[in-house]
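So, can you check this record?

>
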Amino acid sequence: MAKKNQLTTSDHLKYSEYERLLECLHNDGKFMWEMYARLSFCTACRASDVLKFKWVDILGKSSVDVTEQKTQKTRRIPLNPSVQQKFKELYELMGRPDKKDYIFSNGNGDKPLTIQRVNQVLKEFKFKYKLDIHNFSTHTFRKTFGRYVYDQHNHSAESLLLLNKIFKHTSINITKTYIGITQEEIQSIFDSIQF
């Protein structure tokens, strides 16, 4: 488990693996963790921001305003009807907690889980569900979102521009590295060598 304030490396999940993880968590009744994976993906927020969400922030809302802890910048994130419905279903499955409670609470609702605890549990899920990912951490879902957008938009330059704006990266190259494109491009160069 990473120590507090220590850099943790993460990779993105292939979307099919992400969907399989959601299914496994749901089937095992791990609804809070399913919620974590969904909310992290749908908002593309860092764990430090996701863990601060309370039910009142997202239930029945068409958008959520987030002041990012890292950048102190505020952004409005739309929550489409499908996302809203899934959040409502998970809220019900989790026993309809007090809406003023943290979604990812320490058990009493008054404090959120720590990033270190979430990383510890995610590593357990990696092995339990035999996930096809090397570095699995809280940041994985944000990167999975980025990769999903890039793949859904046929690897377009426009998708990189949109992701750059969403992630607030200083350059397109940072965005490309962030979602794992650069390494793939390098690999494809070497794979193209034919004798």
Strands lie at 63-67, 74-78. The longest strand covers residues 63-67. DSSP finds ten helices and two strands in the chain.
